[in-house]
Amino acid sequence: MTAVLVAHSGRHGGTRQIAEVIAEELRETGLTVDLRDAADVATVDGYAAVVVGSALYYHRWRPDAVRLLEHHARDLAERPVWLFHSGPCGPGAALHQVSLPANVALLAARIDAERTATFGGRLDPATVRGLIPRLMASGHRAGDFRDWDRIKAWARDVGRRVRIGVPH
Ligand SMILES: Cc1cc2nc3c(=O)[nH]c(=O)nc-3n(C[C@H](O)[C@H](O)[C@H](O)COP(=O)(O)O)c2cc1C
Question: Record's superkingdom (predicted)?
Answer without folding.
Answer: Bacteria
